[in-house]
Design brief:
The protein folds into two domains: about 160 residues, D-Maltodextrin-Binding Protein, domain 2 (3-Layer(aba) Sandwich), CATH 3.40.190; about 120 residues, Periplasmic binding protein-like II (D-Maltodextrin-Binding Protein, domain 2). About 40% of the residues lie in helices and about 20% in strands.
């Protein structure tokens, strides 16, 4: 081969290699396999001890025990009914190292006009499970049962003080619907908001509020040790075993309200395809593990895993349903 031919061949090879590298650079951001390059932060917008905090710590423990995630930490950013945590996520837009476990509060606080953050400000990654709403009092409370409470609220909606970790969460929203069904005005209820459901339960035990309006995990241990009583749960049927077995449902007490507090993992907005694919793989494998199933069984939670695409559709549907319900209850911002 001549010198000229060899030079031409080199030029062709270099041009082809450059084109190959350019095409690789184009597809890498969305198509290449992504894995965490720094510790993952599981952000909680509430104080330690509440339902969101317990969910985050449960998730972190199972992920590390199963080897699905090697390096993660729970970071609490409490305040403003979770908005501080969502604002922290916003500062890390497009970064797959930050996730948050959302409840219906993300949607309902926005619908009520109390928060600037909604499902369109994040990337839904996985629906994990749901918990029942529970209305509980300390054992020595003079409120006998739900019917007794409903009668008091019907006479005066502000006669009984209620405690919760947020104003528009699954539990207080279920309580509002039950109040309306009982003939009381939910817009006039005396609801005290704490930094977490755990703080609300502590306040109820101390007599600072009369009824804790929370999800099941927040009062399970207190029911088991006899320091609290459940007036009602929001499941369609009684929970079969454990301390909730004797807790009556709203429906069996004449109130046609069934509701639950779902847990959805959210990533920051504008995640690349590789980051979403990574979390899809992590959570799909976790949901199938025996450790995760046992954990949910121990907390009376229903395994409702959905991948990112299905979770995105689920959350959008929930937004429309909750907006309609809250408008009917007079809780949506006009």
């Amino acid at each position: 081969m001549s010198r000229v031919d060899k030079s031409a061949l080199v030029r062709v090879f270099r041009q082809a290699a450059a084109g190959w590298l350019l095409s690789l650079a184009v597809v890498s951001p969305s198509g290449a396999q992504w894995t965490p390059a720094q510790p993952v932060e599981i952000v909680v917008g509430f104080s330690p001890g509440g339902g969101s905090d317990r969910s985050a710590r449960k998730l972190n423990r199972i992920l590390q025990e199963t080897g699905l995630l090697q390096n993660a930490v729970v970071v609490n950013k409490p305040g403003a009914s979770g908005s501080i945590g969502w604002n922290y996520m916003k500062h890390h837009t497009g970064n797959g190292h930050y996730i948050n476990i959302a409840t219906p509060t993300l949607l309902t606080s926005y619908i009520a006009g109390r928060s600037a953050f909604s499902h369109t400000d994040v990337t839904p990654l996985a629906r994990l499970y749901s918990e029942s709403a529970v209305f509980a009092v300390r054992t020595e409370s003079q409120i006998r049962d739900w019917r007794d409470l409903a009668e008091r609220l019907k006479n005066d909606p502000a006669a009984v003080s209620l405690g919760s970790g947020n104003r528009e969460g699954a539990a207080p929203l279920a309580f509002a619907a039950a109040m309306k069904a009982a003939g009381a005005d939910p817009r006039k209820m005396k609801l005290v908001i704490f930094n977490s459901a755990g703080d609300a339960v502590t306040a109820s035990l101390g007599g600072h509020v009369e009824v804790a309006v929370v999800t099941a995990g927040g009062v399970k241990q207190h029911l088991a040790n006899g320091t609290m009583r459940a007036l009602a749960v929001s499941t369609a049927q009684r929970i079969a075993s454990g301390p909730f077995a004797t807790a009556p449902t709203l429906t069996e007490q004449g109130v046609n309200v069934v509701a639950g507090g779902w847990r959805v993992v959210m990533g920051t907005k504008s995640l690349a395809g590789g980051e979403v694919a990574f979390w899809d793989g992590v959570f799909s494998r976790m949901a199938a593990t025996q450790q995760w199933k046992q954990e949910l069984g121990a907390t009376d939670a229903a395994n409702e895993y959905l991948n990112s695409a299905d979770t995105t559709r689920f959350v959008a549907s929930q937004y429309e349903q909750l907006r309609e319900l809250m408008t009917e209850l007079g809780l949506a911002k006009k």
